[in-house]
Write a structure and sequence with these properties.
Blueprint: E1 8-16, H1 28-34, E2 35-38, H2 40-46, H3 55-66, E3 70-79, H4 88-105, E4 110-114, H5 127-139, E5 144-149, H6 157-161, E6 165-168, H7 177-193, E7 198-203, H8 219-233, E8 238-244, E9 258-263, H9 267-283, E10 293-294, H10 295-307, E11 314-318, H11 333-341, E12 346-352, H12 354-363, E13 368-373, E14 385-395, E15 398-400, E16 410-412, E17 416-421, E18 427-432, H13 442-445, E19 456-459, H14 465-468, E20 478-482, H15 516-520
Parallel strand pairs: 1-3, 1-4, 4-5, 5-6, 10-20, 11-19, 11-20, 12-18, 12-19
Antiparallel strand pairs: 2-3, 7-9, 8-9, 13-14, 14-17, 15-16, 17-18
Helix pairs in contact: 3-7, 4-5, 8-9, 10-11
């Protein structure tokens, strides 16, 4: 705890990655090309109006500034787009730098780490836990460690044991990162003035497809809402309830819906509520199924909508190829099917193809040419596709998100182009150089394309696009298309190696037994109001 006569000394840092075990390894270059901030650069970036920095770190820094005196000790903060496991050597160097700075800065009152929680490494399926453990070893047992996590985090016992408080997002699409950063700062202030909370942890053999983890409606939404309501009903006894849906594609022994409940004073309070939520989740497991739209049906609907102005416009999720979950952003199944069928007034965003974008920039706006997608990078899923195209508009790729998960956040897409296939009333396809999921209307608006002018919008995004495109598309206008790729929600298509089998829904016969402490605790469920 901090001395009441001096400002609290709080270190800042983090290594952020969501790992898809089936995607290519995440390299140092990928981290450095997105953001790699050392020392005071972290504080400088936190002060910018539009920053590449994770919003929760910005919120934490600004909230600490607003709530009293403190001495920030910035270490290292880096992150990249979702990809495969992080390279062991680079990860080790990052953790070494963080811990070296921490040791030199001792004594410290607290450490705040911005994490994702679903990172894997080439040497360890639980590098988030390794980071927390090494930070704990560097600062000692008396220093508080608080971390914010994506709700797709895979929670390990080591992560819980080596920290004092883990705070998960509450929304999917993620639009509460700022609030969670604020919460981390407020909770830390309270902890510095008192005692660390007592945390209960339960992980279930339940690994739902990401398409079932929305928080506006459905089983996961109900679970999140229930946990928050019970926290309020229990008054000041519970300081945080986080229900993590997990990220199946990490393929680790730590996959599974995880419940973390932190109580202010009594561990028994946390355990009773955690057990109550876990029992509800397991009893509701059959609801964690979601049907996808077959590709042929999506094409037929697009053709119908293109011919009938009275029908509402629709938005398609190219569900198998979400760069926000490790997808390459370069599959062409949906693009080819719509182009071959002659679909009209379609916007597609965004194909990741640096070579094609560069070619369009060399030719210039208005040029007509044979656009060849994946000419130099054909893979199992990213097949070559070519079509006559016209270069509609070119940009350098520096944009700022407008709605949803990317609102206010600076993004670098690299040299980018809007190509027209089948004439101006055909398909407008966005080609970018750097991998991003199309979760924000800026991906089209930057090229002068009006979302309201399209009959069909198709995006390479799993769910975050729902917040970004909500002004145009109600839930009934959203279709998740069953396409092949590294992020297909059909989990049976993958060769799993790390999942703790049996696990539902892959294994219908999976069973869950309450933890030993629950069997010994005869105080019953958390009291109702």
């Amino acid at each position: 705890m901090s001395d009441s006569h001096r400002p609290a000394r709080v270190a800042l840092g983090g290594v952020i990655l969501e790992s898809n075990a089936f995607a290519p390894v995440a390299t140092e270059q990928e981290f450095r090309s997105r953001y790699y901030l050392e020392g005071v650069a972290i504080l400088d970036e936190a002060g910018k109006a539009h920053s590449v920095m994770p919003m929760e770190m910005r919120a934490f820094v600004r909230t600490m500034h607003a709530t009293g005196a403190w001495q920030p000790v910035p270490t290292l903060l880096t992150g990249c787009q979702p990809a495969g496991p992080v390279e062991a050597g680079f990860f080790g160097e990052c953790v070494d730098k963080i811990c070296r700075t921490l040791r030199h800065a001792l004594p410290l009152d607290a450490v705040y780490l911005a994490s994702h929680g679903a990172m894997t490494a080439t040497h360890d399926p639980d590098p988030d836990g390794e980071l927390y453990a090494r930070v704990r070893a560097a600062v000692g047992d008396k220093t508080l460690i608080v971390s914010t996590l994506d709700l797709h985090a895979n929670i390990s016992e080591r992560m819980v044991a080596q920290t004092n408080l883990l705070i998960g997002y509450l929304t999917n699409p993620h639009v509460d990162m700022w609030q969670r950063g604020e919460e981390a700062a407020f909770r830390l202030r309270t902890m510095l003035a008192g005692a660390p909370p007592k945390t209960a942890f339960i992980r279930l053999p339940l690994t739902p497809p990401s398409t079932t983890l929305l928080t506006s409606a459905g089983p996961y939404a109900d679970l999140i809402a229930y946990g928050q309501r019970r926290q309020q009903e229990l008054g000041g006894r519970i300081s945080n309830v986080s229900v993590f849906g997990g990220f199946a594609f990490s393929d680790t022994p730590y996959n599974g819906v995880a419940i973390l409940v932190s109580a202010r004073d009594e561990l028994a309070d946390a355990r009773r509520l955690a057990l109550e939520i876990a029992q509800r989740a397991w009893a509701d497991r059959a609801r964690f199924h979601r049907a996808l739209t077959p590709l042929a049906d999506a094409v037929a609907l697009a053709l119908k909508i293109g011919k009938d102005e009275q029908l509402p416009a629709v938005i398609y999720s190219d569900a198998g190829d979400n760069p926000g979950g490790g997808g390459g952003g370069n599959t062409t199944w949906l693009l080819k099917a719509l182009a071959d069928a002659g679909a009209r007034r379609v916007y597609i965003g965004s194909c990741v193809d640096a070579a094609l974008a560069a070619e369009a920039h060399r030719l210039g706006e208005g040029a007509e040419f044979e656009a060849v997608f994946n000419r130099h990078a054909e893979t199992e899923y990213a097949k070559r596709f070519s079509a006559p195209a016209r270069v509609h508009k070119l940009i350098d790729g520096s944009v700022v998100g407008r709605l949803g998960i990317a609102a206010g956040r600076a993004m670098e897409l690299g040299p980018s182009a809007a190509l027209q296939l089948g004439g101006p009333e055909g398909i407008s396809v966005i080609v970018i150089s750097k991998r991003h999921q199309t979760a924000d209307p800026v991906f089209f608006e930057a090229f002068g394309l009006d979302i309201a002018g399209a009959r069909v919008v198709a995006v390479k995004s799993r769910g975050h696009f729902r917040a970004g495109f909500e002004p145009w598309f109600a839930p009934a206008q959203v279709y998740e298309v069953d396409t092949a790729g590294l992020t297909s929600p059909v989990l049976s298509r993958f060769d799993w190696k790390g999942l703790p089998r049996p696990v539902y829904p892959l294994d219908e016969a999976a069973r869950w037994t309450a933890p030993d402490w629950a069997l010994k605790d005869r105080t019953g469920p958390a009291p109702s109001r």
